[in-house]
Design brief:
The chain has 9 helices and 8 strands. By secondary structure, it is of the alpha/beta class.
Amino acid sequence: MKDLRPFLEHTNLQPTITSTDVETLVLEAKNHHLFGVCIPPFWVEKASREINEAPISLITVIGYPLGYQRTETKLTTISKALEDGADELDVVMNISAFKTRMSWVKIELAKCSTLIHDNGKLLKVILETAYLNTSEITEACKICSDAGVDFVKTSTGFTDGATVEDIVHMRKILPKEIGIKASGGIGTYGKAFAMLKAGADRIGTSSAMKIIKHV
């Protein structure tokens, strides 16, 4: 069976996450050689200390989970997360503005992209594909591409999340240099493997320990 560990972002974005949970998440990622951990911004500084020199990427979310914060708020949160040690920022696209067909969506993502890339880090944009039809996913992917993002991500995990069909479609639309992160409802080895086979480059999951039992 394919070793999925290098593709897994070990995730805990639950509102009840505690300091002990952060420590456990990082320790599991270290012990099992996972790609990284994804946690709320509040815990980035602690997680950075826990990771120390280990080869684990530290990922956090911005504008989570609804995405309709003001751009200034997102940029401030990004700046603090970078200061605290984040390596990758998963920014929730403003679906409210997108559905209103405002050009501000691309402007906001471009501003986030500039700030993150100026600091040598990576930007992933969360579309929340469960709220979008196929043509909207196409449009959103093109906006992300124009804004210079590094990855496009399917879901916050608060909706039905990733589907193989969405991953296949996104891979057709996005240029090859932009990665895809599948997330939301990926709780088994079979589903995680199917997402990678469909074209995903990363898997965000709160079930990493369950998935790697198959290795």
